[in-house]
Amino acid sequence: MVSLVRQLFRSRSRISKRMTGEPLQIGARTIRPVVRVSGWRVAGGDAWSVSAGVKLRLEPAGVIIVERDGREHRVQT
Question: Measured between alpha carbons, how far is 38 from 28 in angstroms, rounded to an integer?
Answer without folding.
Answer: 33
